[in-house]
Amino acid sequence: MTITADYETVEDRPVRPVDPDTTRVTEHGHARPAWLMMTPFLALYLLFIIGPSIYMMVMSFFDTSLTRPGLGGFAGFGNFAEALGSSDFWSSMWHTVWFTILTTPPLVVLAFVFALLADRASRGRWFFRLAFFLPYILPSAVVALIWLWLYTPQLGLLSKIVTGLGLTEPNWLGDPSLAMWSLAFTTVWWTLGFNFVLYLAGLQDIPRDLYEAAAMDGAAPWQQIRRITIPMLRRTTSLVIVLQIIASLKLFDQPYLMTSGGPNYATRPALEYVYDMGFTDFRTGYAAAVSTLFFILVLAVSAVWVFLTRRQEQGF
Amino acid sequence: MTTLATGTGVRKGTRTEVTQAVVDRRLKVFNGVCVGVLIAFALIWLVPVLWAIDTSLKPNAETTSTTWWIDHPTLDSYRTLLAQGDIWNWYASSFITSLATAAGTVLVGSMAAYALSRMRFRYRWVVFWFILIGIMIPQQALIVPQFREFGALHLLNTYWAVILPQIPAAIAVFIFKQFFDNLPRDLDEAARVDGAGFFRTYWRIVLPLSRPVVAAVAIFTFVWSWNNLLWPLLVLSNPKLMTIPVGLATVQGSYGIRYADTMASAVLGALPLVLIFLFFQRRIVEGIAGTGLKG
Known about the structure:
heterodimer, A: MetI-like fold, disordered N terminus, B: mainly alpha, flat
């Protein structure tokens, strides 16, 4: 009796499940293949992302030059002090921030409104997706060529439209106080589709019966939007805003291609300042210090994004 | 609007029916206005692209008339550009570098994500956070040290310089990990019990189950790599190796007032990705929606 029972226990004992969390044995068995499978990524990551990041921070303390090998003389905080005391540095940083201020509100609000309108269309959504998203997949160089042509004084389409309305034509890209607005305008056209698509997806996640219930209670469409749609999209909106800020801070292509940072450096953003210092003036150490400051700015905003997305996930 | 609705209501009778009719009618009108407004905006959004195509089909001399009407439609600008040959080199460079980047990112990223999602080893959370930092690092800020690094490696003016730094995309690891985490474990655990190794399980079972996310990451990486300007501009000075954005940026000024040629080059530069987009429209859009990512 006892013996049979013992046998039964052995027979019935389930095959040990591969539960990695509980047993030390499996943990041991996992380590080698795990590191092997992560090696290709980690190697490239260390070599081309982490390595350069550290190298940049080290270099920012030296008088490194593009024309000489090696780090050059130690400069201490000299590069940082020079950057923080330089009006060129501050104006380029301000241009980046100003561009972000100009582009983020329209890119968030318009994308939201367009998505809201598209959500009401029963047919032909592919057409809206095509119209708004198509510009997003154009290379910046193509966008620049098209808009330089649109902005061309006297001959461009915009000139024709503005003079047709009986207004005097502004110098879109040549006027220092207007150039950044023109770049922002082009950018809204170029990248709106991305946020539009994010919002469309967010809208599709809102249960339809919420609207139906509200409609039965006599809520007008506008009230439905205010009471249901906007609160339900809060998470999407915070994501869109942070992603948009990060993307706008990385401004480089549009001024580089359309105004060369001009007129008279009026549109030169932080990244182009780095580019000019590092690759035109060959002052690598100084450019590294400016990069480090820019790096910290973007990193701080990105940390907010990571916090927003991670918070939703379990595990870590 | 209200008058119309009341009219129907009177004919109908009971109170609930009145309300329903009012609501329906009101909603229909409102939706109609919404769609009308949106169509107007969508058309405005298409104007720049249509204008570029329109201009490219005119003879250079007639582009200054600023009308949509084309007196003498011609493909001369396209013929000139294609005959010149630069654009073929740019296409080739863009395809090689973008395909290699996309393939590399998918392979390397999904392998690391599989390890993080399915395997338990010491320091797993350290690795996790170490890669998480990568999401926050703006690659554009690293041009100075990366340029020196590739100079020291003697890899400037090679495709490697464009491809290698784009492969370790931390964001890809997290997109894959998220997908793997939500994948039922029964199948790959069954394979493991049957004696398959981790790599075999990943390659034969998990990866084939992950087609949608593989496609999304591959298409995105391809598009970003294709449109990347700053880094390729720095490392590719040989005209034979230039990618489309770099090539276009370099010749930008040289067309002068030949606006038709300029617009034809813009259309040709946009064409491959536009075709890819039209083909994969649904997948691309769902990919962004599902992952909420941005370069």
